[in-house]
Every structure is written in C-alpha cells, then in structure tokens.
Design brief:
Elements: H1 21-24, H2 28-46, H3 50-58, H4 80-85, E1 101-104, E2 114-117, H5 119-135, E3 143-146, H6 154-166, E4 169-171, H7 178-188, E5 192-195, H8 197-209, E6 221-225, H9 231-241, E7 244-251, E8 256-262, E9 269-271, E10 276-281, E11 295-301, E12 312-318, E13 320-321, E14 333-334, E15 339-340, E16 345-347, E17 350-352, H10 354-362, E18 367-376, E19 387-394, H11 403-421, E20 426-430, E21 445-447
Parallel strand pairs: 3-4, 3-5, 5-6, 6-7, 18-21, 19-20
Antiparallel strand pairs: 1-2, 7-8, 8-9, 9-14, 10-11, 11-12, 12-15, 13-14, 16-17, 18-19
Helix pairs in contact: 5-6, 7-8, 8-9, 10-11
This protein binds 5'-O-[hydroxy(phenylacetyl)phosphoryl]adenosine (DLL).
The site of 5'-O-[hydroxy(phenylacetyl)phosphoryl]adenosine (DLL) has 24 residues, from α6, β7, β8 and β12.
Protein name: Phenylacetate-coenzyme A ligase
Domain AMP-dependent synthetase/ligase: 94-300
Domain AMP-dependent ligase C-terminal: 349-449
Length: 458
C-alpha cells in the first residue's frame, strides 16, 4: 500500500507529500510505456463488449494493431447516448457476480446511467482519491467533513473511501441540512470540508444567518468539485471561509471523483494518467486542439475492470498542460473545466457559458455568487429574439432607495457581462437569499426557449 511521506507542518500550502511516489512521479518515457501496455491489454479485454466488438471487426482492430499511443485514434468514441442505448449493463466486461457496487451518473442532462465496479475497481478508486487528497494537503491526523450526497452519486462514497485510505477521520455528514452541518463543524472541529463549491458558499451564508462569522469556523482547507466553478469563485470561498480551496474533477462514467485534482501549486489538476488517457479534442471535428487550447476532454479508462470505456466523450471543456509541475508529479494536467459543450447557450448567435456570467458578476463589488440565468424567446416562432436575463443577489447594504444607485449597479454588471461574454443582458438585482440554494450541483440556467424552432447548442 502506498504511504504518504507527511511533513510536520500541516498547512496545505506548504504540503509536499505524495501518496504514491512511484506512480505519480514516473518519468514520461516509462509513463508512456505503461500507458501503451495498459491500452493494449484493454483492447484485448474490451473486444467482448458487443458495442466495441462490431467496431473492431469493421475496422480490423486487434491488440496487435495498437503499436503506439497514437493508435488510440483508431478506436471508437463512446457517448452518453451509447451508454443509454445499452442500459443498464451492456458495457460490462465481467460477470454480474463480480460486480461489487453500482453507482449512477447524476443525470446532469437526461436520464441517469449506471456504473459498475468490481472490488479491485473500488480499491483503485480509493487510491486515486487518496492521491489528490494528499496532494491538496490531507494528512492522517485531520478530520474531514464530507458534505456530498451519499447514494448513487459518486461524490460521497468516492471521497469517503479515499479519506479512509489516507487514514484521516471522516464525518459522513452528507449533503444538506446546513444548520446541522454548522453544528457538527463547531462541535467536532474538522479541518477539512468536502462538497460542491456552491455548497461551500451556502454553508458560509448559513453561518452568517446564525450570527456566526464563517471565518471563525474550524475548516482550514477544502476539496471542492462535482460542478464547474471559476477562479473568482475560488477567491470568494477562500475569503468567506478563510480557507484554501482545492479543485478536483471526475465523472461517474469513468470512475467518479479521482480523475484529477490539484496539488499545492494549484496550477492545474494532475490527471491520474497512468489510469486514464485524456485527449483534448475539437467537439466538431474531433481532431486534437493545439496544445494549451480549450477543447472537449475525451477519456479512456485504462484499468477499470467492470466497465472500462474507450474514448468517452465527456462534453467537458478544458485545456491540457504538459509542462512540468514544481511539485514533482509528472502527469499531464488539466485546467479547470470552463463549461460543458452541452451547457453552452447560443443566444442571438453568441456562444455563452454560465461560467462567463459568474466571472462577470464576481468582478462587480456588491454582488454575490448567487445568480440565475434565464433565457426566453417571446413572440411568434421565426420572428422573435432571444432574451437573456441575469438575476443576481446583491449584498443587503447595496440596496438603496435611490433609483439612480440601483440603476448604476445594474449598468456596471451589464457592461461587465458584455465585456466578458460579448452579449447584452437584462440585469435584475434581487434580495439576499431570494434565489434557490443548492446542496449538490447548482442549477444556474432556465432556458424557456423552444429550441426546435431556432439555433441550437451542438
Ligand atoms: O460529479 C464526480 C465528482 C464528484 C467529481 C465529486 C468531483 C467531486 P457526475 O455526477 O457523473 O460525477 O458528474 C460529472 O460533473 O462531467 C463535469 O461536467 C462536472 N464536474 C465534476 N467535477 C468538476 C470540476 C461527479 N471540478 C460531471 N469542475 C463532469 C467542473 C466538474 N466540473
């Protein structure tokens, strides 16, 4: 079992421990050799899945024809639609009796799909979570409050067993009941919080409502993931809770959390690329984008036993970095996810990601990170224009009887949105706590257009 070399100083910023030194610092040539060996073994194994077998037969693919990592491009893509078509277990590569656990994707878009794990998959998953948790400062002496949902969602159980693997104490608080979260936090003094970034803000809000200064809470750092968030939101969480906030990424189809996560350098998330081959492709041409450019992440899970996937189209947009990280880990890194290609709104012909609105709002003093984007298309089909409304909560002290002040604030927000996203929006200032709060993934867009009669997101 890998062991983290822990430092005396437990501040995450100065933390340099590595959970699995051999795997995480493997020099590039050995890493690539390992990836190739694992890819060949995967192609040999995965040919039993009917979906892949028919493609392999048509394109004359066999393990012997995978000679270099570039041959990955010969392999077929797998989409969410394919998983749905072969629901629930058409992609299983082990007998049902070997399945040790089943989780489900959150169904961000459409019906959820199931994901199966063998015992070995569960051990691997715990180890991969341990890698990013340790990279972001977790040590065995810490206590961690997990405020992710425990259930079909992979967040709760995935992180839970990762923390257990590191040897830290777990408070499985699960998502929701913010008052109780705060009581637990004040009684048990956890140093670490794990949840979605939006729930971290909800916890800070909840504390203020109870007259507690969120900065006085015992939390010193947090691992947040499960939904897109901006760098400005990171700063907001860090300031409000007086903590360090680390990003981690994953998706259930591939394993859950544990695909990648930040180290103390926080210059991108280290991809566990001895287990996941990640490509960054243009969503339309499906060709690789130039190094460092944004594109859709496409992931091959090399070592999953129960349900490995070839070239899974995540729809998540991010950049890849290959330059060395000062932390000593040698993996590929990815930027934060700026949106999903299927979350992209096209409004009056302009592409808009919700994260751009978040970025704009957090640049204007007096606004909060609680917002809702509404898109309408009033009028008759074919003769109507899209309308974009952004509702944003502002701090109580910003509310004023003076119409001119409120109008000036609306205008500042509107021009920031225009500067960042190139689109005009109607801005509505709403009272603190009037918009819905989320305990899991935040839902920030209501699109009321009937998109069958006009431009569509791809
Ligand atoms: O959200 C797995 C996870 C749980 C990751 C907890 C990290 C922490 P799903 O429910 O299948 O799995 O949703 C996966 O969530 O394709 C992204 O669109 C989004 N996502 C996950 N982590 C991040 C992140 C889990 N750090 C989908 N930044 C993914 C941006 C994220 N988006």
């Amino acid at each position: 079992m890998p062991t983290a070399e822990c430092m005396q100083d437990s501040s995450p910023a100065s933390h340099t421990a590595i959970w699995d030194t051999e795997a995480e610092t493997l020099p590039t040539p050995q890493r690539q050799a390992l990836q190739l060996e694992r890819l060949q073994a995967l192609v040999a194994r995965i040919g039993q899945v009917p979906f892949y077998r028919s493609h392999f037969l048509r394109h004359d693919i066999s393990p012997a024809r995978i000679r270099t990592l570039d041959d990955l491009h010969r392999l077929p893509f797998t989409t969410k639609e394919d998983l749905r078509r072969h629901h629930p277990f058409g992609f299983l590569t082990v007998p049902r009796s070997d399945v040790a656990r089943i989780h489900g994707s959150s169904g961000t878009t459409g019906t959820p799909t199931f994901v199966a794990y063998t015992k070995k998959d569960l051990t691997l998953w715990a180890d991969l979570c341990a890698r990013f948790l340790v990279a972001g400062g977790l040590q065995p002496q810490h206590t961690v409050q997990v405020a992710f949902g425990y259930g079909l969602f992979t967040g709760g159980f995935g992180l839970h067993y990762g923390i257990e693997r590191v040897g830290a104490a777990i408070i499985p608080a699960a998502a929701g009941n913010t008052r109780r979260q705060l009581t637990i936090m004040r009684e048990l003094n956890p140093e670490v919080l794990i949840c979605t970034p939006s729930y971290a803000l909800t916890i800070a809000d909840g504390a203020r409502e109870l007259g507690i200064d969120p900065r006085s809470l015992p939390i010193r750092f947090g691992h947040f993931g499960g939904e897109p968030w901006t760098e400005d939101l990171r700063l907001e969480i860090e300031q409000q809770l007086d903590i360090q906030a680390f990003n981690n990424y994953g998706l259930s189809e591939v394993i859950g959390p544990g695909v990648s996560g930040e180290c103390s350098e926080r210059t991108g998330m280290h991809i566990q690329d001895d287990h996941f081959l990640v490509e960054c492709l243009d969503s339309e041409t499906l060709e690789p984008v130039p190094e460092g450019e944004p594109g859709e992440l496409v992931i091959t899970s090399l070592t999953r036993e129960a349900m490995p996937l070839l070239r899974y189209r995540t729809r998540d947009i991010a950049r890849l970095y290959r330059d060395p990280c000062p932390c000593g880990r040698t993996s590929l890194r990815m930027s934060r996810v700026t949106g999903r290609s299927d979350d992209m709104l096209i409004i009056r012909g302009v592409n808009l990601f919700p994260s751009q609105i978040e970025e704009a709002l957090l640049r204007v003093e007096g606004t909060t990170a609680h917002y809702l984007i509404e898109v309408d298309r009033p009028g008759t089909p074919g003769r109507s224009m899209d309308e974009l409304t952004v509702k944003v909560e502002i701090h109580r002290e910003m509310f004023s009887d003076r119409m001119d002040r409120m109008q000036a604030l609306r205008e500042r927000i509107g021009s920031e949105i225009h500067a960042i996203a190139g689109i005009r929006a109607r801005v509505e200032l709403v009272e603190p706590r009037s918009l819905e709060r989320f305990v899991g993934k935040a839902k920030r867009v209501i699109d009321r257009r009937n998109l069958n009669d006009g431009p569509k997101a791809p």
